[in-house]
Amino acid sequence: MKIIYIIFAATLYLACPSNSWGQALPFAHHSEMGILTGRDDLGNRTNFSFQTFNGFQLSRKYAFGFVTGLDQYGSLSVMPIAMGGRAVLNPEDRWQLFAGLDLGFGSTILEPTVVTEWNEHRWQEGGFMGQGTAGLRIKTKSDNFWTLSLSYKRQVYHLTTGNPRVNDPDPSRPEDWNYYAIDKITFNNVVYRLGYWF
Question: What does UniProt give as the signal peptide span (predicted)?
């Protein structure tokens, strides 16, 4: 987990336009909004997704940076933190094919610990996130792009429940709990997005 934050901070620093590294690399930004679709134990689901890619353009075809945003799985909010790459097949054309790969972590930092009336503690912890994307870029008159994309996204998270035997339980100390259980939950999604790239 710590290494993800270190890589994220380093990429943010390198990609920041205010940092000069001799001949500065052009900045790349891609924001997208769309829907997550998948199936779980409760049936089919359709959820909201927003993500933004920020980084630098290594060449006309390749960009590298970091990805963050918000994915909503019912009442669960997951914030992706990932490294990402983008590749454009035919950057000289008006209609361009592109692909992307993002690998990182889905954070549940927005989710509070819940204590029920029976003193059961419940909290979520994030896990691995991976996403592959294929899409279409359409050049505008200002040399920016509208995008349409289709992604496969895999998100893992962990739901922990426990009943403490002390007033201030430590999750890493089994002796603080009468019972303690961790469930691994995996969301497999097909994601449809509309975006803007500049």
Answer: 1-22
